[in-house]
UniProtKB/TrEMBL annotation:
Subcellular localization, as worded in the UniProt entry: Cell membrane
Name of the protein described by the UniProt record: Spermidine Putrescine ABC transporter permease component PotB
GO BP: transmembrane transport
GO cellular component: plasma membrane
Domain of life where this protein originates: Bacteria
Source organism of this protein record: Lutibaculum baratangense AMV1
Length: 417
């Protein structure tokens, strides 16, 4: 009798262990199935982004080529308008010669040129002259100043101090038109160099304009699709998805042809006597907004259509039957139910528009380029990876902020509903 009473709990524990093992095996199989995808994302998506963002705060060019000079500059007690004495120049001189012979001076020259006008020529000319000296000079400070007097300017040593690394805020501050001066405080850059806040403002203004246009055009289209029978809605949905089957470069080039002075739009406007001469619709902000709206419109329609399909039509009829005017019923009953679709479509279009490159580059003018254009420019043309990474970090921060706002907005709407 006792053995029978003990077999029940023992069998239950054995069954529980078997179920736990089966659950662990199931989770392990599921993990192994998605492991290749995780590794692919980490290797080809996350790692390049992390590496790019790292360059925004890491500054090792000067420290690797002139390690003793970097340490001496960081240890020096600075005043705002001071040039170091002989002890720092005595370290700088030999490292100028050795870096020229090792061909590492070019990296320092490039880095200083980001911060100092003529920094490249300053470093390369001095390093070349120092490397050709027949003997060690009795006073390195006098010898270097004789070769290049700009080493006696405080601005040169302020730039060297900012580049001494290994961690820097130079690039991040530059993207908000700020810089760190000799005494360590943060100040605004000169007005002629203050361009990045304007670029960010332009990028957000274009993205917001495109988002609002896509919402204004996409909402009635999605409403029409949701109110039609399924067979007719599917046919019209194919037309909405049709732009996805055309390469982006082809669509953008087509807008250049359509919007040019002798293009279809100008000819139609003149035929209808809206204008008496061609108006400029391309290579300016108007062309950028029109072409980007066309490209991104499906990303607004699809989330709206998906949410509108779930809204029962009898809610609006019930509101009308209770005496609500059509607009009031639409505003108080329909809009709150489709707000998740509005939020999803708007945030999707806005985030994609923030990082757009091809369309503004081909259709816009010099004053219409967005942040992505300058990221590409600093990556490929000037090889300023630090500034490109800092600009990318700004876009990433904006995207994360917008996603947070979207999550709170959708969560608040669901809580009200």
């Amino acid at each position: 009798m006792v053995e029978t009473s003990q077999e029940g709990p023992r069998a239950a524990r054995s069954l529980k262990r078997s179920l736990a093992r089966a659950e662990r095996r199931r989770k392990l199989r599921a993990f192994l199935l998605v492991l290749p995808l995780i590794l692919f994302v980490l290797a080809f998506f996350a790692a390049p982004i992390i590496g790019m963002l790292e360059r925004a705060v890491v500054d090792r060019d000067l420290m690797q080529a002139w390690p003793r000079t970097a340490e001496a500059v960081k240890a020096h007690d600075w005043s705002e308008a001071e040039v170091p004495g002989e002890e720092v120049f005595a370290v700088l001189g030999p490292e100028l010669a050795s870096s020229f012979e090792a061909r590492t001076a070019a990296g320092v020259a490039r880095r200083l040129n980001y911060d100092l006008d003529g920094g490249r020529s300053l470093v390369m000319n001095t390093a070349r002259s120092v490397a050709r000296l027949d003997e060690t000079p009795p006073a390195w400070r006098d010898a270097i100043l004789e070769i290049e007097p700009r080493w006696g300017e405080p601005a040169t040593w302020t730039a060297i101090r900012r580049a001494a690394g290994p961690v820097t805020d130079f690039y991040l501050l530059q993207t908000i038109d700020r810089q760190r001066v000799a005494d360590g405080s943060i100040a605004s850059v000169p007005r002629e160099r203050a361009i990045y806040l304007q670029i960010y403002g332009r990028t957000f203004a274009i993205a917001l304009s495109v988002t609002l246009l896509c919402l204004a055009i996409g909402f009635p289209i999605a409403y029409l699709l949701a109110s039609l029978p399924a067979n007719r809605a599917n046919l019209l949905l194919i037309l909405v998805l049709l732009p996805f089957w055309t390469p982006l470069l082809v669509r953008t080039a087509a807008w250049v042809v359509v919007l040019q002075e002798q293009g279809l739009v100008n000819q139609m406007l003149q035929f209808l006597q809206v204008t008496d001469r061609p108006i400029r619709l391309v290579y300016n902000r108007t062309g950028v907004i029109i072409s980007m709206t066309h490209v991104l419109l499906p990303f607004m329609i699809l989330p709206l259509y998906a949410v509108m399909q779930t809204v029962p039509p009898h809610y609006m009829r019930a509101a009308r039957s209770l005496g609500a005017p059509p607009f009031t019923a639409f505003r108080r009953v329909y809009i709150p139910q489709v707000m998740p679709g509005i939020a999803a479509g708007s945030i999707l279009v806005f985030i994609i528009a923030l990082g757009y490159y091809i369309t503004p580059a081909l259709v816009g003018g010099a004053s219409d380029q967005m942040v992505s254009y300058y990221i590409a420019f600093y990556t490929t043309d000037t090889v300023n990876w630090g500034l490109a990474g800092a600009l990318g970090a700004g876009l990433l921060a904006a995207t994360l902020l917008l996603y947070t706002v979207y999550s709170r907005l959708v969560g608040g709407v669901r809580g009200v509903m």
